[in-house]
């Protein structure tokens, strides 16, 4: 490998473009090629973000451009097939969440990557946001004692396009719900035992809203919600422990904390966490959109971790196995929502 890892991109829509800019900000990557079934989108992405070559055929790109690693940022139902093409070609894979539509399909990808000897990192971004980094530190410092209960959710307005189509893996659970499920799993670090869910279905056939309970080993319970019926974007994470509580709201640079064991937080306290607390310096004018500006540091931090894992021959912070754990829960949510029964997670 050269000083910079050679990266390619599959999927030249908005997310692929955001991730391309974040990758470039690390200063550790050479952008060698991009591909998209829309040849015009591939050409535009190459021109705008600096990829040396562009393709309409992914397998041709993998063979000719010979990257070290590949970003896959396509619609949900195409993630796993594209990911398989990447790992079967012997390339390291950064794949957008949820990685696959079901846990079974996710396991296939993980096993194929393991057989090929390549690394897989999945794009669960929330733990890389400055507020969530600090929240993790507070938990590790024992500010809330032993974890007892977690409530969390991410809510948005009505979905359209492919996100409203069940065949493409649309619906808020797979779109934004997987983010919050991974965040909960990353915090509690316990195995999920069972799920009970109430699911409302939209006229398009995707889930409209999901409210569900996940019981973990040791008795800890998480209550999680997703919906596409909110007039805006709203999300939260409440962590309750034997010695206190923490709260972080999606897209707000604050953490609420109260603790019975740390004097500094004996009274309810709000910690302000600036956006620039983690990640590289970013000029606002370079961003493709306000959303891109908000998350570009976190995406760059993800890529820095992925590149370090490749260079050091270790698993990255968010593995394919981690993503399978999320999909085991989404599988159980959908089954419980259809049957009205408690479902064991497997």
Layout of secondary structure:
Layout: E1 5-10, H1 14-25, E2 29-35, H2 39-49, E3 53-55, H3 58-65, E4 69-72, H4 76-88, E5 92-95, H5 103-116, E6 120-122, H6 130-140, E7 147-155, H7 172-188, E8 192-201, E9 207-216, E10 221-227, E11 234-241, E12 244-249, E13 254-259, E14 269-272, H8 290-312, H9 320-339, E15 343-344
Parallel strand pairs: 1-2, 1-4, 2-3, 4-5, 5-6, 7-10
Antiparallel strand pairs: 7-11, 8-9, 8-15, 9-10, 11-12, 12-13, 13-14
Question: What can you see in these coordinates?
Answer:
This protein is of the alpha/beta class. It has two domains: 147 residues, NAD(P)-binding Rossmann-like Domain (Rossmann fold); 168 residues, Dihydrodipicolinate Reductase, domain 2. The chain is built from nine helices and 15 strands. The strands form two sheets. A nine-stranded mixed beta sheet has the order 14-13-12-11-7-10-9-8-15, with helices on one face. Strands 3-2-1-4-5-6 form a six-stranded parallel beta sheet, sandwiched between helices. A hairpin with a 2-residue loop joins β11 and β12. α1 crosses α8, α4 packs parallel to α5 and α5 packs antiparallel against α9. It is globular. The chain starts with a strand and ends with a strand. The model has no long low-confidence stretch (mean pLDDT 94).
